[in-house]
Write a structure and sequence with these properties.
- This protein is α/β, with parallel strands linked by helices.
- It folds into 2 domains: 191 residues, Rossmann fold, CATH 3.40.50; 161 residues, Rossmann fold.
- Helices cover 40% and strands 16% of the residues.
- It is built from 14 helices and 13 strands.
- The strands form 2 sheets. A 7-stranded parallel β-sheet has the order 3-2-1-4-5-6-7, sandwiched between helices. A 6-stranded parallel β-sheet has the order 10-9-8-11-12-13.
- Helix 8 links the parallel strand 8 and strand 9.
- The two termini are 35 Å apart.
């Protein structure tokens, strides 16, 4: 039986990996080891480890690493704590392979420990670009430490190979966040009833994460969005909290102030959970902010998306995603357009470049059956140019 550890440090990451985790748990040839860390154990971010256990997952290791700090130094120290905690966890569990998704600092802690301990890494969502966050560099760093690569689209496969990865180790599986659509999970609008908002008409779903690469005021972009939303006082807005990057807590404070002043039509939720988030996506008239979910998952729901600012700059995007400057007038104009019936009709016809689902099944087959390489060779193409 092959031991496959899956690392998760945030609510969003768990939602993307949950189908793969269920498949690994239920397959008689694999032993799932869930390693939960960071924001999963923070009350201010919803203590989402409870959702993992509610889904029938056993948490094999808990790595508490998140400091109550909103600074770059605090994130750097959290990274150090995560490295120490992951060393203990991986030494005890000794998995045959460790699955890591994406580009966050928590994932970097897991990856560097696995590298030193000689535990092969299977990296999900490599090869992408998000120019507005230091996550961009973290993603490429993890790719260089990884043995296997599960990428979301063909251009990302090419990019990972150009980084020196042998082509036979890079698999185009699509975005795992789309898997539940193909799996036939029912979207239940009643899941949103507890939010206390009237959502029988048009509403917006919004998230604003800190743009960590630029050093700009993390609240500035949020303020531009809130100013724009003030022009639509009757439009309900479901806000989800930002992630635990530096500047996230300042965003939460500003967001809660605005929600308090707009209590009749707005709510801010630390974590909707995967089922409620999908229901919110399916029913939204527009998705706005700078979350990767707006670029990767939302197009499959036929929802117009306003991707604001530079955090996701460089990612493939469907025609239903409009890139908008983090400036009130630009956001207002884009929002007015997105709320028109024609925009919704066009979004429903958009093709999502991140695939049609079934990523988890493809990953399971490789994780379970393929021989695991134990080296990290640099692949050179003809004339020394990576292929």
């Amino acid at each position: 039986m092959r031991k496959v550890a899956v690392f998760t440090g945030t609510r969003a990451e768990y939602g993307l990996l949950s189908r793969l985790m269920r498949l690994l748990r239920d397959d008689p040839a694999t032993e799932l080891q869930v390693i939960a860390a960071a924001a999963h154990f923070a009350p201010e971010f919803g203590e989402t480890w409870r959702a993992i256990e509610a889904d029938g997952m056993t948490i094999a290791a808990r790595v508490e690493m998140l400091l109550a700090s909103d600074s770059r130094v605090g994130v750097a120290k959290s990274l150090g704590l995560g490295t120490i905690g992951m060393a203990d966890a991986l030494e005890r569990l000794r998995p045959d392979v460790l699955v890591i998704l994406g580009d966050r600092f928590e994932a970097l802690a897991a990856a560097q420990v696995a590298l030193i301990l000689g535990i092969p890494i299977a990296h999900v969502h490599g090869g992408e670009i998000t120019a507005g966050a230091y996550d961009d560099a973290i993603r490429h760093a993890i790719s260089k430490m990884a043995t296997w690569h599960f990428v979301a689209a063909a251009p990302y496969r090419t990019r990972v190979i150009r980084m020196g990865t042998p082509p036979d180790r890079v698999f185009t599986v699509g975005a795992p966040g789309l898997d539940e659509l193909v799996a036939g999970a029912v979207v239940d609008p009643a899941a949103l009833a507890g939010l206390g908002l009237a959502l029988d008409g048009a509403y917006a779903l919004a998230t604003w994460h800190p743009p960590t690469a630029t050093g700009e005021d993390p609240v500035a972009g949020l303020s531009a969005i809130l100013t724009a939303l003030d022009a639509w006082p009757d439009l309900p807005v479901i806000w989800t909290y930002p992630n635990a990057d530096n500047g996230g807590r300042a965003i939460i404070a500003a967001l809660e102030d605005w929600v308090a002043a707009n209590r009749a039509r707005a709510v801010a939720v630390p974590s909707l959970g995967f089922a409620r988030y999908r229901a919110a996506l399916a029913g939204a008239a527009v998705v706005l902010g700078n979350s990767s979910s707006g670029v990767i998952e939302a197009p499959s729901f036929g929802v117009p998306v306003l991707n604001i600012g530079d955090r996701q700059a460089g990612r493939l995007a469907a025609a239903s995603v409009r890139h908008v400057a983090a400036e009130p007038r630009a956001i207002q104009a884009a929002l007015e357009n997105a709320l028109q019936p024609a925009a919704r009709a066009a979004a429903a016809q958009a093709i999502n470049p991140y695939g049609q689902g079934r990523a988890a099944e493809a990953m399971l087959t490789i994780l379970r059956d393929a021989p695991i390489p134990c080296d990290l060779p640099f692949h050179d193409g003809p004339d020394g140019v990576p292929a």
